[in-house]
Amino acid sequence: xxxxxxxxxxxxxxxxxxxxxxxxxxxxxxxxxxxxxxxxxxxxxxxxxxxxxxxxxxxxxxxxxxxxxxxxxxxxxxxxxxxxxxxxxxxxxxxxxxxxxxxxxxxxxxxxxxxxxxxxxxxxxxxxxxxxxxxxxxxxxxxxxxxxxxxxxxxxxxxxxxxxxxxxxxxxxxxxxxxxxxxxxxxxxxxxxxxxxxxxxxxxxxxxxxxxxxxxxxxxxxxxxxxxxxxxxxxxxxxxxxxxxxxxxxxxxxxxxxxxxxxxxxxxxxxxxxxxxxxxxxxxxxxxxxxxxxxxxxxxxxxxxxxxxxxxxxxxxxxxxxxxxxxxxxxxxxxxxxxxxxxxxxxx
Length: 348
What we know:
alpha/beta; Rossmann fold; 6-stranded mixed sheet; 39% helix
C-alpha cells in the first residue's frame, strides 16, 4: 500500500459471513470489531478509522472472491476474518502472496496454522488467529466424553465441511487414544432436511455418544429429528461451538434438552463491561460466542498498526506490510478480554 495522506483515514477490512444461515457468526464478530473501534473514538494515529467489509460466506468460493476484492483495494491496511475455515483456506494464498496480514477471530481448523502444505496444512506468512484450534477443543471434548461422561462407544456425523472434518478427526483420535471405540462415521449434506436414514443406521449400533460438529440449520434438524428415533433415547448427543447460539434452542425447543455443546468460556470484569457496551449499542444479546475474540483481534491489530506506523512531518502515514506482519508475530502477553495472547511461530 502507498502512503496515507494527511486527511485520509486508516482503512481496515473484514471478510465475514454476513448472508445465509450462518450470518449470525459474522454479525457477532462485526459487533466486536465495532465496539473496539468505538472505544478509541473511531480514531487511530489522529485520524478516522475506516472499516470496509466483504461477505466471505462460509464457502471456499466466498473466501476466494472476498480476498481478491480486498487485496485489490489499495486503501486496505490489514484484514480481519474470515468467519469459517473453508473460506479461510481459500483466502490464505491470495492474502499472503499479496503481502497483507490477516487475523481470524473465529476460524478454528487446525490446518490453518499448520505450515506443512504438502501434508494438508494451509498456513502461509502473514496469517494469524486469536481463537482456539480444533485440535484443542477436539481433545477437550473427547476427554469430557471419556473421563467425565464415561462414554465407551462413539459415532460421528459430518457434512463434508473442512471444519467438521477437522474437528471430527481431532475428537475421534483422542477418544480412541483414551480407550474408546469409534463405531461409525456417517455424513449428511449441507441442505439436507431429512436426517432419518443416517440417524436410524447409527441408532442400530446402540452407541453411547453421537458427535455432530455441523452447522445450522443441519444441526438443528438433526437434533429435532433425533428425538423421534427411539433407539437414541439413551445416547448422549454432542454438538460443537457452532451451535452455541440462541437460534439453536429456538429451532429445536425441548429436543435441545440434554444436548451437550462446548465452546470458549470468557468471563471477568472486562468482559462484563464489554457486554454492557454491546447491550447499549445493539440492545440485545450477542448472537454467537466469538464476539470477544473479534474485539481482541481488532485491538491487537490496531495496536500493531500504531506501533509500526511512520508519520512524516506533514502527517502523511506509511505502514509497511512486512513491518505489520512482524509486529503481530511478535505479540507477547497481549492482555485481551479472552485472556493473555502470545503469538506462536505459525500465527496461533
